[in-house]
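Appendix B, example 12.
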Amino acid sequence: MKKLSLFTFSFLLFAFTSSFGQGNSPDAAYVKDNYIKHEYQVPMRDGKKLFTSVYVPKDSTKKYPFMMDRTCYSVAPYGPDKYKGSLGPSSLFLHDGYIFVYQDVRGRWMSEGIYEEMTPEKEVHKTNKDVDEGTDTYDTIDWLLKNIPNNNGKVGVWGISYPGFYTTAALLSRHPALVAASPQAPIADLYRDDAFHNGAFMLVANFDFYPSFTNRQDDKPTQRRGNPVNYEINDGYKFFLDMGNMKNSNDMYYKDTIRLWNEMLDHPNYDQHWKDRNVLYHLHDIKTAVLVTGGWYDAEDLYGAINTYKTLVKDNPTTPIYFAMGPWVHGGWSWGPGDHLGDIDFGGQNGPYYREKIELAFFNHYLKGTDTDIPKVSTFETGVNKWKNYTVWPPKEAVEQNLYLLPGGKLSFDAPAASADSFDQFESDPNKPVPFTDAITADMKREYMDGDQRFAERRPDVLTYQTGVLDHDVTIAGNIWADLKVSTTGTDADWVVKVIDVYPDSAKNNQWSKETYLSGYEQMVRSDAMRGKFRNGFDKPEPFVPGKVTPVNFELQDVLHTFKKGHRIMVQVQSTWFPLIDRNPQVFEDIMKAKNSDFKKATHRVYTSKENASYLKIRVME
């Protein structure tokens, strides 16, 4: 039985939504009745041609702005008589009237050229051979303005996930007609977004994606595809343990046929390969209005959304930059109600709210001149299920505080007073790793992002710290930093930190919590991993000195969450998180080349004393 990773699911989702229904969606009849489809091979400055579908309103008495989506996931269906089932970011755009443009990016599907993963951008374009996604966007916009009648001279671009990156890259075209763009869950830094989290390889997310995403190796107008791995079992934990070391992914399955997979295995450090695939370096001198959108429970590109916004605001202070973050998984704002994830209820129809009140309002304002009062920052506050508006993110009202790990499994805003060198320790066995979810699944089950962590607390290789019962609400807003003091008997170790909202015993079940109890529920609020050898830089791995107290500091990314009165705040620390991340042999080496015999047990310590304090830096709303 074949199982799809969440990456592959996302690939299929966006490929499917590109061609939604092809006559089966509720909007299909409206599309055919009100739009005419054209297909073009649009020439780029270097002579390559990119396949482009254009849907033009039949009513030619008006002028319309363009809405463009550039994608590596196909603009299907192909053929001038084959129509998409819907158009635009949502059906609201379809009925409002736009010229919709869909383009296969260079080297994908029906477009010419050679595909490069997350095309490196160039700061300078000296000749017509110096092309990237920015120049391809510029040339496309120029062609559209000159060749598509009844346009009003304004262009908007949007895209989710990988198309979110192409939307960010479109900003680098700096074309004067590009007046509005919305990168949604965009990949920003391929190393940090999708490949490695603080140096820890995102195993289950990537494993089944690349066979379905095999790049074309030549310049022919057909797309080469690989074959997904046949898991044969539903238990991903067992499957990946049986696979063993990362080298076995090729020896047992891929047979060195997937170049993009091999590029990740060949570049575990943040070297030039990855630096070239970080678009954040280039986001300066942007004049286009931008709406960056993401989801608090995006397991893939949370980093991209948050850091695209922060970089744009920092480096383009006079440009209108908007930010929307809701209680969504990857792309969840574009479909469905957005009212829950797993057992956790979000109190209402948050997807439709975003699509009408934020997304449509943003594009209509900049492309059609309508009035709007959308705030610069629209964020959903989990825990209390309220939308909050700010002028900037993180909010200026949020004050940095330290939340200390204390002896006896306690957690407090008060620093440790004892001068004795106290610590907690556990034995980590990479051959018996802590699972990232208690569900039996072969993919990156998205519900892990806010799932119950009681199963992990029961493990002897998971340290747990918690506050007393809160006597008032505590709201944290912004990024979280883990500042740990640790030691290990090995020469390398991973460190996983999870911030958890512990419900009171009196908590009642909701309509979604049918197979568990919310009484005592331990809801994960934010989490991330750090590969310890990268503690002093992702480009320069360093071994631990066995037994030496060592600082390990890393970012867990942003939240807006209220721990309500009567709840507790909990922090869990562990060293395996499988198979969400690959296993660390706990021996300093290139893990991608490790042998099965290299994986060793080690004893890890987390220090909780005055001299060697471990804590989280958080921002608390006053």
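Residues 1-22, 220-225 have pLDDT under 50 and may be disordered. Residues 350-368 form the longest helix (19 residues).
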